[in-house]
Design a protein that fits this description.
By secondary structure, the protein is α/β, with parallel strands linked by helices. 51% of the residues lie in helices and 14% in strands.
């Protein structure tokens, strides 16, 4: 896959596990057909590998959080198959830890879903030239976070990829709280707690709550 600008519009494949999201992004990009063209789409990461291999797009624009294989895992897989593949991750999570994970996975960028259409096109064009594109609201915070992590002045669990909220959830389950107890303490829904726990299990490479607690106690990664 070439890293030099193409003669025609930028060729993009969209990946998300919700058809409505894909349709929304296509609608955002439709007014810019002279600069960018959606040549393919995949609902879910499993289908994406085949689609990208068959179409060899200039950019893969992919959601970070999907059921099953995540956008981060997909990025790693695509980059393993083709080191020149450019993947830009699109997310609702303005958390610098997701940004760091994306960059470690080899992503060419991390943008937030509230981005305006013209700015999205501009950022994708920059990524195609070889630049690493980061949402402006995250960039300054990421620099500060990186400096604090370098000097070990950051929350326990950060070096394992846990976000601050995930570290809070982990600490509360170490303390013995149920999912409902965690939800009440953090003033979030039960489903939000379950989502955090799934992410914690994946990042700590454990299968369940007891495994997460054991790892947290062994590594000292709780608040």
């Amino acid at each position: 896959m070439t890293t030099t600008p193409s003669d025609g519009p930028l060729r993009v494949v969209l990946v998300d596990d919700h058809e409505m999201v894909v349709a929304g992004i296509k609608a955002m990009l439709a007014p810019f057909l002279g600069r960018i063209r959606v040549v393919g789409e995949a609902i879910g990461a499993e289908r994406a590998v085949e689609v990208v291999a068959s179409l060899t797009p200039d950019i893969v624009l992919c959601d970070v959080r999907m059921h099953g294989v995540s956008g981060l895992d997909l990025c790693r897989k695509l980059r393993e198959r083709d080191p020149e593949c450019k993947v830009v991750l699109l997310s609702v999570y303005d958390d610098e830890q997701y940004l760091f994970q994306a960059l470690r996975a080899g992503a060419s960028g991390y943008l937030l879903k509230q981005i305006k259409s013209d700015e999205l096109v501009r950022q994708l064009e920059l990524a195609h030239t070889g630049a690493t594109v980061i949402d402006s609201t995250l960039a300054g915070r990421a620099v500060d976070t990186a400096a604090r992590m370098q000097s070990d002045e950051f929350w326990p669990g950060a070096r394992h990829g846990l976000t601050h909220r995930e570290s809070e959830v982990l600490s509360l389950i170490v303390a013995g709280l149920s999912n409902r107890g965690v939800a009440t303490r953090l003033v979030v829904s039960d489903e939000t707690v379950k989502s955090h726990l799934r992410s914690i299990y994946r990042k700590l490479q454990v299968n369940d709550r007891s495994g997460a607690v054991a790892t947290a106690l062994r590594e000292g990664i709780f608040l």
